[in-house]
Amino acid sequence: MTLTVRMIDILKAIVDEFVATAEPVGSKTLVDKYKLPYSSATIRNDMAVLETMGYLEKPHTSAGRIPSNKGYQYYCEHLLKKDMDEEVKLALTSIFDNRNMNIEDAIKECCKIVSDMTNLASGMLGPDAKKQCLEHIRVFQIDPKTAVCVFITNTGYTENKTFNFPQEVSIEDIQTCTDILNDRLRGTPICDLSEKLEQLKPVLNKSVRRFEMLFNAFAGAFVKFASETLYFDGTSNMMYQPEYADIEKLKEMTKFFDDSKMFRRLVDHELQENNVIAKTPMGTELVWKDDIAIISNEIKIGKGNEDNARLMVVGPRRMEYSRVVNLLDFICKEIEDMFN
């Protein structure tokens, strides 16, 4: 059965009201507050039909209705509009004035801003190490005991690591080691770098004077680079959401913030059981798992745009989707413009 215009009006009003109040919505509210041009009896009848179709739910303790995951899905796919407050745009663009930030630092700064503006948790999920290969390594010596290493992948993603050596290392040793690694490791999947580095031990031992310090520095960096990058800001905001007054629900939510593999499978749609998935007109992806909503935007950096970092907002399914989706869309485009 296709939704009628009247049903769409009712569904939109219920989503807007429930997001604003966290209270089940009745027909009287829709007539009095939203001025819907239908009688209470007609609205109640359509609300019952929408419930039967799976777009609404009826809490046991109330005569009103609340949106289901399917209802939120329809709302986000068909009723969201591209609308960004100009004052918010102006405030956000100021953070991109610092051109010295690398992409990871920029995304982390954006996570903090998004979590502050939405009172939700905001996070970054880095590229999948299984789909990335090493393209190039560059090392910049800061002083005899400190250097910054930049890893560049075949898709253009970059990541920085700081090396703090226990003793002084010459620029010649750093350059020789870097040349060998670039020559022997280019094209190697990120997750295989540690194993390949171990095989290069004899070559490095013969060619590099401070072999052990440089080997250990690169070994640690490769392990960290290959691990899933999952970062969150504002997780404490979840404690103030009425949905998580139930301690068991709060515990379930906190599991999400520590499990990068589960997050990867969710946003890549590999965990399908009981999930509802949507894509907004702006290209933002949404996944609802039980009472948890995950909104994510890819940040397309570098050549190919095959597998990129994601900026995400995580919270209860009752959230201001229009505001959050437009915020993510704007910020991701600003990051892309800055780094492309």
Relevant terms:
single chain; 340 residues; alpha+beta; Arc Repressor Mutant, subunit A; Beta-Lactamase; Enolase-like, domain 1; 3 domains; six-stranded antiparallel β-sheet; three-stranded antiparallel β-sheet; 13 helices; 45% helix
What does this entry look like structurally?
The protein has helices at residues 5-21, 27-32, 40-52, 69-79, 86-93, 103-118, 171-185, 193-199, 201-207, 211-226, 247-256, 260-267, 321-339, and strands at 56-57, 66-67, 121-125, 134-143, 146-153, 158-164, 230-233, 275-279, 285-289, 292-299, 309-316. The strands form 3 sheets. A 6-stranded antiparallel sheet has the order 7-3-11-10-9-8, with helices on both faces. A 3-stranded antiparallel sheet has the order 4-5-6. Strands 1-2 form a two-stranded antiparallel ribbon. It has 3 domains: 5-67, Arc Repressor Mutant, subunit A (Orthogonal Bundle); 86-128 and 229-339, 2-Layer Sandwich (Beta-Lactamase); 131-226, 2-Layer Sandwich (Enolase-like, domain 1). It is of the alpha+beta class. The protein starts with a helix and ends with a helix. 45% of the residues lie in helices and 19% in strands.
- Principal-axis shape: elongated
Compute the number of structural domains.
3
Query: Strand pairing plus helix content: what structural class?
Result: alpha+beta
Strand order, sheet with most strands: 7-3-11-10-9-8
CATH topology of the largest domain: Beta-Lactamase
Helix content: 40-55%
The CATH superfamily of the largest domain turns out to be: GAF domain
Question: What layout of secondary structure does this protein have?
Answer:
Blueprint: H1 5-21, H2 27-32, H3 40-52, E1 56-57, E2 66-67, H4 69-79, H5 86-93, H6 103-118, E3 121-125, E4 134-143, E5 146-153, E6 158-164, H7 171-185, H8 193-199, H9 201-207, H10 211-226, E7 230-233, H11 247-256, H12 260-267, E8 275-279, E9 285-289, E10 292-299, E11 309-316, H13 321-339
Antiparallel strand pairs: 1-2, 3-7, 3-11, 4-5, 5-6, 8-9, 9-10, 10-11
